[in-house]
């Protein structure tokens, strides 16, 4: 238990001094929301119906895929890992506390979007708020674990940034949050379905059946957890 609290305390100190966390979890998503929210609702008034969901998908994807991997590289690729070992902290705890920290910050950012979008852009609240929150939590967990795969499997900082962008860009461009996915060629639609952003967007907008969207997210989560466990063992060596 002492090791757990030590890990949480160390993560808290890292969060306080992390500019990456501030940029990816708050500043960039909220700035994108402030600019693109006005553009979307002016050009396409019907965008008000899904503005909360689309901006949330962007913000969560940005914060997780761009922000989490560098934090994991900082832990497992530096002297921080030795600090963990010397204090009896399990190898997996760095991944857990980083993911938990990202979850808390991104959930807070999502709630800011949830309440401010109707206020500033007359966006519509989700029809079923409780179901929306559950969908958001699931989307957060899946996306953070996908980001964890990048941070644990790619040890070089520059390559980590490259892989983060390779996952982030198609997640946004092919998810349907910027324009209807039906406008894309079938091949790109299939590729887009390989990323959690598309299914998270479907789930939060209640497009299709609940299980129809949950099952793909569950499959992605299981695969991500498996790869994360391999990555943690790999970093022990």
TrEMBL record:
Source domain of life? Bacteria
**What subcellular locations does the record give?**
Membrane
Q: Where is the ABC-2 type transporter transmembrane domain?
A: 55-227
Q: Which InterPro entries match?
A: ABC2_TM
GO terms assigned for molecular function = ABC-type transporter activity
Cellular component (GO) terms are:
membrane
UniProt entry keywords in alphabetical sequence: Membrane, Transmembrane, Transmembrane helix
Task: List the transmembrane segments.
Answer: 21-44, 50-72, 92-117, 129-154, 161-179, 214-234
Tell me what topology the record assigns in the membrane: Multi-pass membrane protein
For the keyword Transmembrane helix, the answer is yes
- UniProt keyword Lyase present: no
Name under which the protein is recorded: ABC-2 type transporter transmembrane domain-containing protein
Organism lineage string: Bacteria, Bacillati, Bacillota, Clostridia, Lachnospirales
């Amino acid at each position: 238990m002492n090791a757990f609290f030590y890990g949480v305390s160390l993560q808290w100190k890292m969060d306080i001094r992390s500019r990456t966390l501030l940029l990816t979890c708050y500043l960039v998503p909220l700035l994108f929301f402030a600019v693109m929210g006005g553009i979307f609702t002016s050009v396409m008034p019907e965008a008000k119906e899904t503005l909360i969901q689309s901006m949330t998908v962007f913000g969560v994807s940005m914060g997780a895929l761009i922000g989490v991997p560098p934090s994991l590289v900082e832990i497992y690729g530096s002297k921080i890992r030795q600090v963990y070992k010397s204090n009896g902290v399990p190898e997996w705890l760095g991944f857990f506390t980083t993911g938990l920290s990202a979850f808390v910050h991104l959930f807070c950012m999502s709630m800011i979007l949830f309440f401010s979008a109707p206020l500033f852009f007359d966006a519509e609240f989700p029809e079923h708020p409780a179901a929306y929150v559950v969908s958001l939590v699931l989307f957060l967990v899946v996306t953070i674990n996908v980001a964890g795969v990048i941070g644990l499997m790619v040890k070089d900082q520059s390559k980590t940034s490259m892989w983060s962008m390779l996952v982030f860009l198609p997640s946004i461009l092919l998810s349907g949050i910027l324009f209807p996915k039906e406008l894309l060629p079938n091949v790109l639609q299939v590729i887009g379905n390989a990323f959690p952003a598309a299914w998270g967007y479907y789930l939060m907008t209640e497009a299709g059946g609940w299980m129809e969207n949950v099952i793909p997210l569950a499959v992605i989560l299981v695969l991500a957890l498996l790869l994360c466990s391999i990555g943690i063992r790999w970093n022990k060596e």
